[in-house]
């Protein structure tokens, strides 16, 4: 199938790059898992006479969404502990539950639940950080989802029981196992700056450069965390990371809420990436990130769902809309973060953050065919004044009907082709009976 | 059908009142369009041996949602003008479009689109404010949706072309036409305090009392509006309304964002109702309402979607989630506005605001059977630690599968029984070609 030519006709095609907006009555040509061309449907029969034809007459074809911050396996804790203060949530509910239940099997079952949900929500690539990254990677590869898993190269404060792979050598073995995989790769993912000494930071910096690995970290998530750090070190976490050479184009700085102007400028000048997780930030009461300001300074800002325990689902349509709406309130400016900017955050900016901008994030010739079809034929999507606006302000993830990753179809008319939905639900129900509420 | 007994078995029943949470394996008994009983499914065959049985084994049965602020017909302007400053949005886009296009026919077609969308999203009652209220009422009655339409008893600043019914007498004729209708009723709906003299306020107060009509108004929506009003009158709009006798249990104060403590206390002491429209407030950059504070003071706060031109859809599941998340950010408190409070706002609080608390808003014996079934069997709804949390933080309106209003089924497995979907879409497309973007 991958070797064959596929011709996908859409009512609209939204390539994201170039910035043309939604192109009416266009088609995407896929060959060998990659995008060969984007052109008006009327010109297809002449230029590409052969191929498997798919007609998506009420749909927008657009790049698969890139979820730049997840703890996939935590989907098993969805709804376990809501409406609680952050410390109580972590210390009395989440951490004890992790201590008791998290195992390789738990992570595999949870990651499979998350992969299924993400796939159905049009997410074709995710950037994960959790225990047993190899288990998450294995599940993603089985399902056919693109991902990056974070190596726990240094035991943080929340090591469960020190696994052999929670070490530098163990992490690099996982890295080596996946480094030629077409879908899966690795990042360095220490939890946050709090647990890192200067020497450890320098080691991470060297590894990141030597192996060309992204550095995936929570930074400046709570005001308290930043204040405590400054009390201890005299500088903000980001400034200290900068001194140790960690703030550069390989840094994926997640949350980045409580920033001074100097921190924001540093991120911009260093070419670092920020992942905005608006619903998680709200739900945990962590504050409102100044995203429009970061974008204005030239920072590449992507989107993440965070884990389902603090969200509570993995839906970037919801995050796009939230990001666009929230930025207007934060800036007291209804023109802040327009729909097109939210769409970029969820697609091409995400690809850039992961170092995959040459491969995914837009429908451009030569990139992998990571494509989703979004049905805008339903009554709640009418009228069609502005499709870009429609996608951000009035579209639910349930309108994603079809998903291709590297040209392989994984979702067809909302049916999974690579996930046994009953088996996933059964495994989840089994864990539910074991995790006390 | 209405005279027969219907037995609806749910995996859970969430009655809202009494505040029991979700009851597993319960059933709702409906007779003559009203709720007869809520009881464990196991006891049904003994106590209610006869009746039409509906098994909803993966579903939550709960009260239909009450949308307390809409401009239904504006669904025809969905996506017409997004990401614009409020004045530009109104003066350059929305008002000219209304001036050119709004007619009785436009309102009927737009209201039909809105009714279809609301029905499918589990909204069983709405409180509307727009031109040609009689046209909206007629459409709602045809579809079978419960509603209150606002009488334009006094021409506001935005009168299109003065219709005979945009007068006191005309409004009262509409009131009289609908006052015995089982689903439809009327409110007094002057646009906002700005256009009202003291004498007009007193007239409205008298009418509201004499005819027992709710007073549905936008109040304190923007900071500028409040400041201007205080410059002109020396007191806030709400304080002036209070002096003229308008602030009481019949007042439905929509938005109520920019409030002083005195205004908040006034609303609480007077027993007035507030309608929170979180997504519209964000999108138009109007600020963040202190909802948790209003609730703490004892104000009855309900939810509204506002019109689709500023939202951009009519989905109270989205508004519940947004209200719960936003309150946590506003109060810097992750325990603020828990899921159960958001559900109350969308159901029983809405019923109270409309003066319908004896008739709808909960699944209690004697109330109208306005019931929705929400499918939580899907993968993204697993696990099921907390159904109330699930409904607010992880449920999409697309999970509403069935809707009954006064015991009459209007949506069955997501199919409309009283709406011709193709005809609605065709009418919308026709308007789309006429409204220039």
From TrEMBL, chains A, B:
Transmembrane segments: none annotated. The keyword Nucleotidyltransferase does not apply. Its EC number is 3.5.4.28, 3.5.4.31. One of its GO terms (molecular function) is metal ion binding. InterPro entries: Amidohydro-rel, Metal-dep_hydrolase_composite, Metal_Hydrolase, MTA/SAH_deaminase. It is an enzyme of class 3 (hydrolase). The keyword Zinc applies. Residues 60-409 form the Amidohydrolase-related domain. Keywords: Hydrolase, Metal-binding, Zinc. Pfam families: Amidohydro_1. Belongs to the metallo-dependent hydrolases superfamily. ATZ/TRZ family. This is 5-methylthioadenosine/S-adenosylhomocysteine deaminase.
